[in-house]
Amino acid sequence: MFQPHHDRPLTSCRRPRAVPKRPRAALLSALIALAAVGATGCGGGDADARQKGEKKTIAFESCSRTVELDRIPKRVAITTDAIADTLFELGVGDRIVAKTRGESAPAPELKERLAALPSLGTRNPSVEALVGAKPDLLITDQVEKVSGKLGSPSIAELEKLGIATYVVGGGCAADLSEDTSGLEALDGDIRQLGTVFGVEARAQKLADRLNGSLDDVRRQTAQEPRTKVAKLSQVAGQLYVTSGGLSDDVIERAGGTNVFADLPGQFAPVSPEQIVARDPQSIIVDNFTATAAGENEAMAYLKRTFPTVEAVKKQRVLVIDAAKSGARGSTRPVEGVAEIARFLHPSTSLSQ
To answer: PROSITE patterns attached here (predicted)?
Structure first.
């Protein structure tokens, strides 16, 4: 349940000489020049193909911005492994050329494939690493990761480098203190990405399948009593609860009632005493490593810290892959709705 959360980006070994001594503006100018050399050097054939290719404009909306592309993206960078879930479902996962080491574990079937990709940094992508990866589209789960802070580039800087930015739905909040949208944003992302990559029919089928799964859960839990739930995570020793946003929507769709929904934002820091005072009937814990070791660590923590809470006494605890409970831009939260629903309502006939 302990989340690896580091803000200092790693940098690529490719860098112009004496870069550390240059101001940020000079660094950006040097990197733009480097990118131009790459486009006319060993990448020249690709540049020629772009000029000769179809000129149809592809447009999408991102954080109240309209972004236009002159061609379908062929090289994509992502800022969390979970975004790869949707891209592979759409049949374009092979276009991912680099990624950051995100907050959640990759899907098991994609773990080796994603581990082999070049790293853009620990959490926020670095300008240098992006230039080295040469993506034409960066897909991120949080606009904060492309805000120009903590060594990351801004959206405007990326545009100057010829890299378009797509912020997935619900990721436009400046920080986690702002509440934001739930799973409905995924439906919009799938359809927009279908247009961006020219796979509209496949996107429609994927959206229909996921919506069908959510409808199935809704039907089967409609008459079930709502269970009082607290969803916990721990980052750098601080205990957090889900209070809003995507994770709260996942709980509600699964047939639970979030006992901390009254707190502001998407996640709220709390003390163990606050958990005890609200005495949830069930507890869900984010496992950021998605490993048995992470699950065992979480269970030991709960038994040690909350022995009097009803959920712990009655062993009503679910340790879940963190991506299934709240990874933006990923299809896994739909799986999470079904998994949590089975946990909260074991008498239903929800399929495994």
So the answer is: FE_B12_PBP
Cα–Cα distance list, 147 to 48, 61, 81, 120, 142 (Å): 32, 18, 20, 15, 9
In 3-state terms, what secondary structure has residue 289? Answer: coil
Does residue 311 contact residue 227 with C-beta atoms inside 8 Å? no
d(CA 96, CA 138): 10
| Geometric angle at alpha carbon 298, from 297 and 301, rounded to 5° | 85
Which segment, 121-130, 173-182, 198-207, 342-351, is predicted with the most confidence on average?
A: 198-207
CA–CA dist 257, 325 (Å, integer): 15
Does the pLDDT of residue 6 top 50, yes or no?
no
Q: Residue range 13-24: average pLDDT?
A: 37
CATH number of the domain within which 60 lies: 3.40.50.1980
Residue 352: what pLDDT? Answer: 53
Residue 225 burial (C-beta neighbours within 10 Å; 0-12, 13-18, 19+)? exposed
For residue 79, being part of any structural domain is answered with yes
Answer whether residue 218 is part of any domain.
no
DSSP states of 56-112 = --EEEEETTEEEEESS--SSEEESSTTHHHHHHHTT-GGGEEEE---SSPPPGGGHH
Range of the domain at 98: 7-205
